[in-house]
Amino acid sequence: MIFGRSERGKPPVEPVTLKILVAGGFGVGKTTLVGAVSEIRPLRTEELLTEAGRPVDDTSGVEGKHTTTVAMDFGRITLREDLVLYLFGTPGQERFWFMWDELSEGALGAVVLADTRRLEDCFAAVDYFERRAIPFLVAVNCFAGAARYPVDAVRRALDLDADVPVLLCDARDRETVKEVLIGVVQHAMDYAAETRQTVSG
Fold first, then answer.
1. Which of 18, 19, 16, 22 is nearest to 44 (CA)?
2. Secondary structure element (H or E) that encloses residue 70, with its range
3. pLDDT in tens, 169-180
4. For residues 74 and 89, is the Cβ–Cβ distance under 8 A?
5. pLDDT tens, residue by residue, 95-124
6. 69 three-class SS
7. Residues 171, 173, 176, 178: is their CA dihedral positive or negative?
8. In a designed cystine with 73, which of 34, 101, 102, 103 is the match (CB 3.0 to 4.6 A)?
9. Which tens digit of pLDDT belongs to each residue from 53-66?
């Protein structure tokens, strides 16, 4: 099946569309992740870093970064003919966090992208989704030259609940990013089922 069209003799499939957020610290690879899997040209709202922003934009560890997302990244991926994900990458810097409430409206779940060299940068995203009961998983972006840590060590460092998945990925690689997105959809479905069971029980 071609997206939006059906095979001869078969009724068209109306896909279910789901909204997934991609959050994390400044320079962690959110824009790269969205671009790696999006089947449309991603919408990006990037601006050049300026001298004026130098006191508040901590570029240690990401010295080669010259732009920053000021609103959001947007992409789309069809996982199956009946399942389409819309991806919204959130801005990583604190001065743009006021946009998160609007971006998170109606989200099924979220990916918190982490860099083990700057793990503390994703604390705010973890706290945000925990406080709002939005199911999320942590995806560790395996940068070249960055130390590799066991998943359990990352979980302890971030003080995550036992049911929050932690996955390793390469934000540049379409296949590992797809695994992360499938993981967050599955986790969100499990979370919803547990919530319904708790309410009905």
1. 22
2. strand 67-80
3. 999 999 999 999
4. yes
5. 666 778 888 999 999 999 999 999 999 999
6. strand
7. positive
8. 34
9. 445 445 455 455 45
Question: What string of DSSP letters covers 35-65?
Answer: HHH-SSPPEEEEEE--TTTTTT---TT-TT-
Residues 171, 141 contacting (CB under 8 angstroms): yes
The CA distance from 169 to 140, in Å, is 6
Query: Would residue 116 be called left, alpha or beta, if left means φ above 0 and alpha means ψ between -120 and 50 degrees?
Result: alpha
Give me the phi and psi of 92, to 5 degrees please.
Answer: -90, -15
- Condensed to tens digits (0 to 9), the pLDDT of residues 174-199 reads 999 999 999 999 999 999 999 888 88
What is the amino acid identity at position 141? N
**What length is written for the chain?**
201
Global pTM?
Answer: 0.80
Beta-bridge mates of residue 110? 21, 136
Residue 97 identity (one-letter amino acid)? W
- Cβ–Cβ under 8 Å, residues 90 and 30: yes
C-alpha span between 82 and 16 (Å, rounded): 6
**């060590």: which residue's tokens?**
153
Ranges 34-38, 71-75, 179-183: which has the least confidence: 71-75
CA distances (Å), 35 to each of 83, 103, 134, in order?
19, 18, 23
